[in-house]
Amino acid sequence: MKNILIIMLFFINLFATPSWYGDIPNFKQNFYIGYGSDADEQIAKQNAMVSISSQINIKIDEEIIRDKSIVDGDYKKNISIKSSQKTKANLSDYKLLKVSYEDGKYFVAIEYENIPNIDKFKNKLKAKGYKVDFYNYLKNFDLARVDKRWYIKYKDVIQLIEKRDFEKFFITIPNKDLILTTNKKSNILYDKDEFYFKVKSAEDGYITILTVYEDGTVSTLMRNVPIEKNIVTNIPDKEFEDIPEAGLMEYGVDTFDIYVAIYSKKKMVLDRFATADEELIEDERYKNFDELISFIKDKRYTTLKIVTKVR
Asked: Whole-angstrom Cα distance, residue 272 to residue 277?
């Protein structure tokens, strides 16, 4: 009798599973298919992503917290998922192949292409017929900040990017009509170094200098400093003003940022960007490198990448 019960349970579970589940053909190179099931559709998708991650050796730390309580005599269960991905890839760019609901459970199949995100972006551009050079990310592309992550944009194409590709926006862009350097050799700083800028403009006007930290936080160092045509100006004036001091974002780790000098004939309003003396690092609203890129598109500007090293 016991053996008959086991066989019956086996066939019940067999018929409760969709015929395609675990059996979708995959002949495409660099593509992986993951399967997941659960009474909750989101958890089923998460299980499918974990399945893919295990196939491509992505480590996902996952914690599922189930809080059980009785409210007014009714049993209630709340489920929340906390997941952090430690990987070179990102599973947000997946394709849902199939989903069905049978006997109280969701069954899903997810497809993921395991190539660098920047290659996915290039493929999307190619599919749209767009041709664009990748030699200058800052001039040729836009950024978007969505859910605390950075996306690269070109017209109507957008793609989540990894840290190494985000860093390609941090470059020096020279401008013959607006020259920006520091008083340090090779523009390399060390932690706690005091430094100042040397600026030369082809026209009289005003100069504003902003800095972009390596996480995309933007702050304004100097606003609307008067400058005379073809005269090298020290900003700030080392004789009369406070001098900036180089610092590290993380103790004991070299960092980098870019300084952006913007020329204007009249004083500019820059309320959207924070001042350098504010507590910026943890504040999401000041991670607005995307806004700065849009702001400088039609302006005369130059950028200078500076590496700050551990002393």
From this structure: 15
The Cα 146–Cα 153 span in angstroms is: 12
pLDDT at 88: 38
Under a CB-based contact definition with an 8 Å cutoff, are residues 263 and 207 in contact?
yes
**Residue type at position 223:** R
Give, for 295, the enclosing helix (H) or strand (E): helix 289-296
pLDDT tens-digit map of 114-139: 888 999 999 999 999 999 999 999 99
Coil vs helix vs strand at 68:
strand
Q: Going by C-beta distance under 8 Å and a sequence separation of 6 or more, which residues neighbour residue 142? A: 152, 153, 154, 290, 293, 294
Q: Tens digit of pLDDT for each residue in 247-259? A: 887 888 888 999 9
Per the CB < 8 A criterion, the answer to whether 191 and 248 are in contact is yes
The DSSP line for 103-172 is TTEEEEEEEEE-S-HHHHHHHHHHHHT----SS-HHHH-EEEEETTEEEEEETTEEEE--HHHHGGG---
* Cis, peptide link before residue 236, omega less than 30° from 0: yes
263 band by pLDDT with thresholds 50, 70 and 90: very high
For the chain, the first-to-last Cα distance in angstroms comes to 77
Amino acid 27 reads F
Tell me how long the chain is: 311
**What contacts 24+ positions apart, CB below 8 Å, involve 56-65?**
56/32, 56/89, 56/112, 56/114, 58/85, 58/86, 58/87, 58/89, 58/91, 59/85, 59/86, 59/87, 60/84, 60/85, 60/86, 60/87, 61/85, 61/86
The residue among 214, 32, 30, 35 whose CA lies nearest residue 112 is: 32
Helix/strand/coil for 90: coil
